Amino acid sequence: MANVSVAAEWQLLGDRYYRKPDLYHPLRWKHIDLSRNKVACAPFGGPIALIRDDSKIVQLYAESALRKLRIFNSAGVPLSETIWKNPGGRLIGLSWTDDQTLVCIVQDGTVYRYTSHAELLEPNFSILGQEYLDENVVECVFWGNGVVCVTDACKVFSIADFKSKNPRPLRLADPAPEGIEELPHCVAVIEPQYTMSGNVEVLLAIGDGVVMVEEDEVQPLPLPPGDGPLQKMVVSGDGRFVASFTHDGRMAVYSTRLEKIFEYECESALPPEQLAWCGLDSVLLYWDDMLLMVGPSDEPVRYLYDEPIVLIPECDGVRILSNSSIEFLQLVPNSTVSIFKIGSTSPAALLYDALDHFDRRSAKADENLRLIRSSLSEAVEACVDAAGHEFDVSRQRTLLRAASYGQAFCSNFHRDRIQEMCKTLRVLNAVRSPEIGIPLSIQQYKLLTPSVLIGRLINAHQHLLALRISDYLGMNQEVVIMHWACSKITASLAIPDATLLEILLDKLKLCKGISYAAVAAHADKNGRRKLAAMLVEHEPRSSKQVPLLLSIGEEDTALIKATESGDTDLVYLVLFHILQKRQPLEFFGMIQARTLARDLFINYARCYKHEFLKDFFLSTGQLQEVAFLLWKESWELGKNPMASKGSPLHGPRIKLTEKAQSLFAETKEHTFESKAAEEHAKLLRIQHELEVTTKQAIFVDSSISDTIRTCIVLGNHRAAMKVKTEFKVSEKRWYWLKIFALATIRDWEALEKFSKEKRPPIGYRPFVEACIEADEKGESLKYIPKLTDPRERAESYARIGMAKEAADAASQAKDGELLGRLKLTFAQNAAASSIFDTLRDRLGVS
Amino acid sequence: MGSRGCVRFRGIYVLPIRGKKCLIIDPKLGGSLSSIIQTSLLKEHGVELRHLSAEPIQSDCTKVVFLVRSKIDLMKFICSNVHNDISKGLQREYHVYFVPRRAVVCEKVLEDEKVHQLMTIGEYPLYVVPLDEDVLSFELDLAYKESQVDGDTSSLWHIAKAIHKLEFSFGVIPNVRAKGKASVRVADILNHMQAEEPVNSPDMVVPEINTLILLDREVDMVTPMCSQLTYEGLIDEFLHINNGSVELDASIMGVQQEGKKIKVPLNSSDKLFKEIRDLNFEVVVQILRQKATSMKQDYTEMTTTTQTVSELKDFVKKLNSLPEITRHINLAQHLSTFTSKPSFLGQLDMEHTIVEAQSYDICYEYIEEMIHKQEPLVNVLRLLILFSVTNSGLPKKHFDYLRRELLHSYGFEHMATLNNLEKAGLLKKQETKSNWLTIKRALQLVVDDTDTANPNDIAYVFSGYAPLSIRLIQHAVRSGWRPIEEILKLLPGPHSETKRGRFSSSPSFDTLQGASANIDRAADGRRSLVLVVFIGGVTFAEISALRFLTAQEGMAYDMIIGTTKIVSGHNLAETFVEKLG
């Protein structure tokens, strides 16, 4: 049977099978001896960093005496290297953070950070506080994005987040009482995400016991008698268990509160070099040439290695790196077991077998299918799942073919499942290829998420693959293209702007809505201002484009773009920017010809910068605008309660108005305004005098007409007359004003006298109106007969309710329409109404 | 359109600042907000509600929230409030929410006044307020003056943004027709926004809004200057509708409470109002009379003869509408006290004479007399604007003379008012011959035999004058701009006609004829929509005319009206009046 060979490679631990397929064999690197180096391997198939271990005495072969930091991918392909000559003493800790920054901590506490391109990330900083600089770091324990260090004075420091801009070291509580400087045997951390407090908890094996240290608390944890001192401790991936090696050669598993759960007696009392969790199911112990896997059952599995290895814990297993290969030790997934277990008769195994028969054109294929008809979909699912867990491409293919063969007979299977798995596997196989060297298992891939994977690919400058994957998975390509463009700019110092622009545009256009401004900002940061200006030209979003233009000093263009966008807010942004950077005159010159910018500036200045606005108008020769401003100021003075009543403030008001007048007079187009200002000044003077003579503060700020009316109402006809002549008030207006003024004080006698002075230039209608409005029917009758137009007469009579007279007048006018309207007015009055009807008949109008 | 609910949801969003607080709002926002959030709801949340003014506000809340439009001049008030607190040694937490968005210039003022660092600044993205089933307002009451006089075109961006936001819910509007400088600019900004932040409309769905028509108020300043004669229009002219209601003395509405004011809501949830709001007032009076009479008749029948249960039921149903009938009879009665005044009739007469544009001298003398009689300035300005616009300005001699008389009669502070009007082109020196007569004739703006009871043309809203703005829209909807291109050229500002989105490439999607209505019909059989946006405001009479058009047989579209604000000639003219002194 074909299946036998697969299961033959498995090892049984308790009732579970384990396997350790080769991920890469041989590795691409040459002459690497892990035992001579300090090694840091990033989880999730990340890069491997090597540096010669200066705590060991090693023989130098044909190599430089200088130490080098070398970085490889998981397949051993060299990615980068740099010479290590950092001061600070011996290298104590070396590890990768979650975002694949290599953190190196040396004896004096200095932290050096490198990218996966072996570029040093500035600034370096010390993990020790200012006052502990003379202490030495002796031990480092890393997790995700943090680290805990123990010094030779047994002080504990931690950095919670390397990702933040300014990683801040924090001193935790002292594990031992003052004065006792006993160093811990071993240290382990429980990651913040698994603790109640949300802060890191550090376990230190000191003396015979263990203490748990937090930021401001130390808590001794009781160890079962006889277990201490512990030689090694390691916390499980889910933060719930601690695996440890006791002084007397036992491997013990505790809860994080150190309640013992499990124990296994090893053959050696010598502590293992490495202790690691394999998933959550077993613990690995490594001595010189033996790897021991201990599970919940009694019988462990033993692997022998004749070369040094490094255990790299993953979420679902352990990668085992040796000089020549990298393997993945994992629990065999259930679906795989059900198919390949020797003698398995599970539906999935039968389906897999059926495909084999089918390929050999054997009729047994059909027989198998019939046997499992009822659980076919379950079998298909198992094949799909097993394919996902496979690293071997041809076996993936066979399993998927079995699945798709089964699915053809299975109506209720979710079709997309196979397609999806194919997609996932294509992505996984692509990144597993040695050139890329990211050997993710499907479980790791799901935990990592595709977008993080793409982020890692672009950080590794694998843009093409990242682009294809994001395209293939239907994800936004913007992040890839953006990163590519920025990297391209950084790497292309020698390419001229125009050429580089073309190269960039060619790719940027692939992605709709990409931020050209962000790329431009990067170009600017790299000192390529001209390229930045050319790029920002292509940014469609003005709100991004304009600020960038300002920051690269393209103020004119910024102003044009802001204006084009129609967004006045952006225009203001540019205006204030220029205003801050330039001299006023220069600023005025820039905005003078730009209508929108100029008007917006004026609006702002009108509210808050009066004097500045005046400067602007003066410098641009808009004298009439200055005049308006002065005139307005004179009104503002008027608002001041001290201004009226003959106070000295009155003088300045007039002066301002006169100044406005002379400015208006400068231009021919503003003679009207100039005249008006002149009259205004004159009026203010006269009103001022009137207030002084009448001792009544009622004149200032009223109009000419109102002044005349007030004079008449006060009986001061001479003053009224004076104002009239002074301002050449027309007879027409004079009559209206006087008639209404007299009607206001109900001086009917004077009114009549006035009407007889001479033939009124506006006829007698105003007299009639004034009387009717004052409800003086009798008075109005004095004037109605004098109206020349019979229509007016008719309407006036109608208004005071004299139907007969109204009708007579209307018939004189021979206006049918008028008659009709008047009739409506008298609708309530039957008698009056009939008069109109007869008249209308007589006139012969409808 | 469900937009009311959505804005209400956002209303609560201002409140996450916990605890007791004093909410100081821009009075101009009060109205639009009150139609969205109930004051009672605010009180429940422990909010003290005040209006922003120059006077510092007295409150013992430690948290103060300002809710203001992003206007430069309002910053003064905020600053004076804060300065006042500082001088008294009061420490408070200040929050400023800008409607609809933060503005660089406002924050600059706060910085200049050294209060910026004391503020927490937020936005309250209210771009559109629904006023009725078919009317949206951008609540930009100064838009016209700001863009015409001050050159501040912020409102245009705001309008484009509001439309763009609508497009996110209703899809890209494929046809855009614009007339007037501001309108063409808005269409332009809208395209700019679409390029910056594309609305992705699914390919196969017919967009709900088929056409956007943008129209500048500048194009037609004649219509708003004429007195509106529809029921709703007249109410606005005389009683000033504010956010869908009028405030009246209680006695007018038949409630005997001395000196008390009551608010009468006016919107389409009042069935009777919905029926009569768009009709000519003459007709409304008749309808109300009929309703009252028939009610009375039913009542007499009810008391004399025996009735079946179903008849009784019908009667009771009718009785339910009694309060509405009473309300509108009261209102109509109150209105007729204004409409029967000779001065109003005279003014109507004059408006028609000016629109007819046949007797220049009569009009000129009438206006001169109004000034001499010192009639209310705004009334004078309305006629003066109407006169100047139809004559494309006044001859220099008359221009200067009337201006001088105006300054003499109303005071020299109105120099600024005149300057504003001149900048806006509403009152100017005649430089070219007027083409109003040509326009009037070509678009049949004066319809002689208008039957207001059974209208067959939009002219019924002004008893014989068909509003120019609506005529243009009528043409735009029926056949596009092309057939009236020559006339459009005679009106102020450019015009444009564009196709957008995926329709931009289809060649023969030219006219919106009734025949093609089937294609434009949205999937569920409803008529597709035309969004008509008035930049600078629209009057109730114009809205009525549009509703009349929508109700016509053979009309393929429903119309939604967007406007910077609902205006009347009165408040439009008022925005130009400068208050100095």
Describe what you observe in this structure.
The complex is a heterodimer of chains A (846) and B (581). Chain A has 846 residues and is α+β, with helices and mostly antiparallel strands. Chain A is 45% helix and 18% strand. Chain A is built from 33 helices and 30 strands. In chain A, the strands form seven sheets. In chain A, strands 1, 2, 3, 28, 29 and 30 form a six-stranded antiparallel sheet that branches. A four-stranded antiparallel sheet of chain A has the order 4-5-6-7, with no helix packed on it. A four-stranded antiparallel sheet of chain A has the order 8-9-10-11, with no helix packed on it. In chain A, helix 30 packs antiparallel against helix 31 and helix 31 (803-813) runs parallel beside helix 33 (830-843). Chain A starts with a helix and ends with a helix. The relative contact order of chain A is 0.04. The mean pLDDT of chain A is 87. With 581 residues, chain B is α/β, with parallel strands linked by helices. Chain B is 48% helix and 14% strand. Chain B has 25 helices and 14 strands. In chain B, the strands form three sheets. Chain B has a seven-stranded mixed sheet with strand order 6-7-14-13-9-8-12, sandwiched between helices. Residues 1-14 and 504-523 of chain B have low confidence and may be disordered. At the A-B interface, helix 17, helix 19, helix 21, helix 23 and helix 24 of A face helix 4, helix 5, helix 7, helix 8 and helix 16 of B. Chain A: Pfam families: Vps16_C, Vps16_N. Chain A: InterPro entries: VPS16 (IPR016534), Vps16_C (IPR006925), Vps16_N (IPR006926). Chain A: It comes from Carya illinoinensis (Pecan). Chain A: This is Protein VACUOLELESS1. Chain A: Its main location: membrane.
Beta-strand percentage range of chain A: 15-25%
- Rg of chain A, rounded, reads 49 Å
What's the number of helices of chain B? Answer: 25
Class from secondary-structure proportions of chain B: alpha/beta
Q: Biggest β-sheet of chain B: count, sense, barrel? A: 7 strands, mixed
Percentage of residues in DSSP E strands of chain B = 5-15%
Could you tell me which chain pair has the largest interface and how many residues each side has?
A-B, 57 and 50 residues
Radius of gyration of chain B: 26 Å
User: How is the quaternary structure best described?
Assistant: heterodimer
Task: Report how far the terminal alpha carbons of chain B are from each other.
Answer: 46 Å
Question: What structural class is derived from the secondary structure elements of chain A?
Answer: alpha+beta
Strand order of the largest sheet of chain B: 6-7-14-13-9-8-12
What's the N-to-C terminus distance of chain A? 117 Å
Contiguous low-pLDDT stretches of chain B (5 residues minimum) are 1-14, 504-523
Please, how many helices of chain A?
A: 33
